[in-house]
């Protein structure tokens, strides 16, 4: 009888084939699991970002022809860049001019449209979508469209001016208008992004502030300067920083619309990096220019971070 009960109990409560993990094992699994999900992104970052960045630092200290053996030259690329390369100075000034003109224009246009769209009720979504559409168009396609618009013979802009008896200039072929034409195109292509950011910032401003100001007799213009701009300053700071960084890296417009011409008037730093790397096959020199560009962007961003205390209000 006892033997029967023993066999019955063993059949009812069989020993599990797989042991359940203990608490320590569970903690290890819970700790490792997120990193396993991140592993593909980490590998991609290391292969396609971290390694090329580190390798470009090494390349900048070499005379590195694309089809020949590299030769270590130390800081010679950087010395040549600042002492002997006159074209680099011109390219740098072109880029600074582009940034100085484009950033205020972009911010002013995007802020103006944002304030207007935030003040209307009917059609706001339609206009917002319409103004944001250029962001969705690839920059190459936008550059090709505007290259046709700027055409001096059959372009739409000069055709429109011709109706009023005005002879339009060679927008992309005249050194006086080439860079300005690219800036106008860039503002059209990029203001929608900042516009949406500003709209989000405007919607976060409490309406009670405007109600209190109106009770005190403040006009709309006064409310804009005393309430809207201070409350929107953190959003504006973000927009300015991001626009500056992207403006320093302008490439597609110069490459597609003018090839850096006329007379290198629209040649920018990134396009100059491309020329040295893939046209002149001076990979080491191109890497040195790239790191100078990185240093310039870093310094400008650092200055902006220091200056934000004077005009950005977080409370």
UniProtKB/TrEMBL annotation:
Lipid bilayer topology: Multi-pass membrane protein
Key words of the record: Cell membrane, Membrane, Transmembrane, Transmembrane helix, Transport
Listed transmembrane segments: 35-62, 96-117, 129-149, 177-202, 223-245, 283-303
* InterPro entries recorded: ABC_transporter_permease (IPR051393), MetI-like (IPR000515), MetI-like_sf (IPR035906)
Q: Which GO CC annotations does the UniProt entry carry?
A: plasma membrane
Specify the domain of life of the species encoding this protein. Bacteria
Protein name as it appears in the record: Carbohydrate ABC transporter membrane protein 1 (CUT1 family)
């Amino acid at each position: 009888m006892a033997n029967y009960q023993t066999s019955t109990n063993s059949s009812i409560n069989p020993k599990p084939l797989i042991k359940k993990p203990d608490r320590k094992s569970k903690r290890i699994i819970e700790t490792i699991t997120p990193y396993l999900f991140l592993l593909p992104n980490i590998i991609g970052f290391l292969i396609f970002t971290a390694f090329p960045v580190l390798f470009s630092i090494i390349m900048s200290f070499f005379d590195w022809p694309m089809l020949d053996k590299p030769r270590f030259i130390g800081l010679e690329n950087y010395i040549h860049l600042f002492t002997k390369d006159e074209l680099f100075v011109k390219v740098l000034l072109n880029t600074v001019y582009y940034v100085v003109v484009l950033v205020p224009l972009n911010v002013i246009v995007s802020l103006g449209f944002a304030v207007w769209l935030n003040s209307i009720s009917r059609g706001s979504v339609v206009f917002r979508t319409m103004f944001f559409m250029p962001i969705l168009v690839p920059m190459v396609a936008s550059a090709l469209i505007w290259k046709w618009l700027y055409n001096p013979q059959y372009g739409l802009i000069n055709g429109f001016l011709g109706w009023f008896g005005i002879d339009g200039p060679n927008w992309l072929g005249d050194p006086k208008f080439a860079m300005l034409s690219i800036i106008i195109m860039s503002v059209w292509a990029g203001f929608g992004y900042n516009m949406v950011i500003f709209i989000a910032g405007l919607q976060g401003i409490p309406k009670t502030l405007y109600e209190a100001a109106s009770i005190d007799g403040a006009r709309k213009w006064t409310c804009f300067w005393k309430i809207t701009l201070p409350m929107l300053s953190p959003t504006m700071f973000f927009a300015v920083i991001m626009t500056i960084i992207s403006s320093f890296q302008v490439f597609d417009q110069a490459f597609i619309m003018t090839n850096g011409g006329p007379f290198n008037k629209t040649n920018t730093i990134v396009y100059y990096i491309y020329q040295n790397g893939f046209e002149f096959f001076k990979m080491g020199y191109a890497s040195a220019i790239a790191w100078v560009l990185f240093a310039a962007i870093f310094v400008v961003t650092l200055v902006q971070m220091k200056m934000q205390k004077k005009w950005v209000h977080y409370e």
